Amino acid sequence: IAVDFGTAAFELGARLTALLKRAQTERDRSPLTGLPGNGWLRRCVRAKLEAAEPIALVMADIDDFKGYNDRYGHLAGDDLIVLLAEVLRGAGRRYGDFLAHVGGDDFCIVCRPAADKRLVREIESDFKRAEPAAETRPAITVVSTTVSPEEIDSLHCAFERLAALRAAAREGRRNCE
Prior knowledge:
Elements: H1 9-27, H2 38-50, E1 55-62, H3 65-72, H4 74-95, E2 96-103, E3 106-111, H5 116-129, E4 140-147, H6 155-176
Antiparallel strand pairs: 1-3, 1-4, 2-3
Helix pairs in contact: 3-4, 4-5
């Protein structure tokens, strides 16, 4: 923040307020992927629902990520998270409105309800084809749910639905193996 001796008190106050707001905003950004985190996701979802806009939430994460990290190390795990983030960025640019790195290996895209199924398929397909190809790369789980503006006061329920869908998808794959 640049100031000199001639800066008025109100101007200095405004600059300090802007600096603090920027610091608070950047605090919620993932240092690994550079993506916004939970705070931004909550604000985005709330703003869309307050504007009476129905949305879809698309969650993606890496299957058995802890096992992968334990076997190949944290640097390889970080590389895998960055790879998934890049896949999500690409798909999100085409169909999504907002992408957040929720934490660890979990990501969320906010999109229009009409685009969620197409987005899920594209993410799964793009991740399988992503370079560098590796036999050891685990699968990902991508699920979606729609959220109506009437659910604004029960957002936890929407994320619980996503968790249940994710568990069911993984269980379904295990049963098919």
